[in-house]
Amino acid sequence: MSTEQSRGVTPRRPPPMAPMGKTRYIVMMTLILIGLGLLTGRIVNLHVIDRNFLQVQGNARILRTDPIPAHRGMITDRHGEPLAVSTPVVTVWANPQDLPNDDVQLVLLAQALGQDLRELKDRIENYRDREFMYLRRRMTPEAAQQVLDLRVPGVHAREEYKRYYPAGEVVAQVIGVTNVDDHGQEGLELAYQSWLAGQPGKRRVIKDRRGRLVRDLEVVQEAQPGGDLALSIDQRLQYIAYRELKVAVDENDADGGSVVMMDARTGEVLAMANQPSYNPNNRAGLDPAGLRNQAMVDAFEPGSVIKPLAMSALLETGRFPADTVVDTSPGWMRIDSYTIRDVSNNGQLTLAGILRKSSNIGMAKLTLQLDEPVVPDRYRQLGFGQAPGTGFPGEATGEVPSPQVWSSSQWAALSYGYGLSVSALQLASAYTAIANHGEYMPPSLLRLNQSPQGEQIVRPDVADQVLGMMDEVVEPNTGARRAEVPGYTVAGKTGTVRKTGSGGYQENAYRGVFVGITPVSDPRIITVVMIDHPRGDAYYGGAIAAPVFSRIAGSALRILDVPPDNPESGEEDQ
């Protein structure tokens, strides 16, 4: 019995639910169940039906694919010495919309970037409606880390590479340069861009809405480094050529000059120097004239240095035996309305004497005896008027005029180096046919792993005969005597050419040129030296270009360990 009953109290019971309350309960439970059903359906819809769509939308907001920069291939000399290398750098960028307005943070940021605060603020304002701007490109990793350590909102970093040129201005025009994005802009950097650049990689990362890295997920594609490029250049010889050329240009107060040294056996370019030059590692205040690889992109009238090549064509006709004598008196002659002159009245000259005395009249008289264009044909066979085929951007083709426009004076002028144009590289390459028993070797700026197949252009006996004539040119009593190399025989030819301008040939403006082959007994190197517009007292090729050849060739032969073939001339003092 309950307590209430023992006390005589009737227990109270809950009143029965009113019909209206029961209905409300059912309605509420129904609504709750419907809501749960809708929520469950939505969950199913989001996780099953619309899963792919939502995944794509989510990834679009947080998932990013960042590029992995490819390491640009190295450019080396023929012995593996670096001429162009890529070093890691960091580019600091920002989202201007996330950058703070706090002057204290901006002051610290400007100091770390090494920039003026006012200029930085102005740049930020100019980019305020954008989401990207560079703060500073290609910083050293250490300097960039100092910027990142400030933890300024909106500031980010990206890894890149910067090109560095160990040889600096010495080989600048041959190598060329890359731009701020590491793309080749000049020289071999441009010519072999696709080979050197490599293939950038990709990596998938998660970033927040401010562009900050949250997680590095995976490497989608590995970066493929660029290929290395081994040049034919010998850095040791390149330094010597550049140094001696610079001294000569300065001493003669010249506009500039070029040197090309070529392997006589293979056509490989061992050295190619130009003046003026520039420092590719610091291009502030750059003179555009220094960018040009004059040895390859500039063509000029060669003058008398062409005469041995013309003589090879004349000899092959069979019309002029070795003992042929030409009367060059009185030292001048009229052709058409022009007067051709020698430096002096040389009288009776043999064929070798014509080259030794550099007689324009002798060459003209021989050429005018022929009806066939053997001389210009020989020039074309040796590559004049055609691209050398090295792949160098803007390489000069030069010009050999067509037969339809030749007058007698033009016909004669071609034999002594006027009326056509060549580059220094073409000139050096043409002389491989004289140095190599008549076999022409095409020029190469890349190191060759095996001897190339040459083309027999000149008969071997004729090539050897011309080489012997050139040997007589470089003797103590000739204008080319300053080209002598102690301990070695030298075959060479001087040239002095008047420069042309808008009104024709200029007064007192010349190019001094020398072409030399050494040693004569077994030719190893061919060197072309050109000094442009010397303003000193001397301007003849024998006076200003031949001494440069002597110093360059002498040093090169010792470096290449070529044994002396002319002990009687004595070794140069050490």
What does this molecule look like?
- There is one protein chain.
- With 574 residues, this protein is of the alpha+beta class.
- It has 2 domains: 66-230, Alpha-Beta Complex (Penicillin-binding protein 2a (Domain 2)), CATH 3.90.1310.10; 235-277 and 295-564, Beta-lactamase (3-Layer(aba) Sandwich), CATH 3.40.710.10.
- The chain contains 21 helices and 19 strands.
- Strands 2, 3, 4, 5 and 8 form a 5-stranded mixed sheet that branches. Strands 10-9-19-18-17 form a 5-stranded antiparallel sheet, with helices on both faces. Strands 1-6-7 form a 3-stranded antiparallel sheet.
- Helix 12 (307-316) runs antiparallel to helix 19.
- It is elongated.
- The protein starts with a helix and ends in a 15-residue tail after the last helix.
- The model has no long low-confidence stretch (mean pLDDT 87).
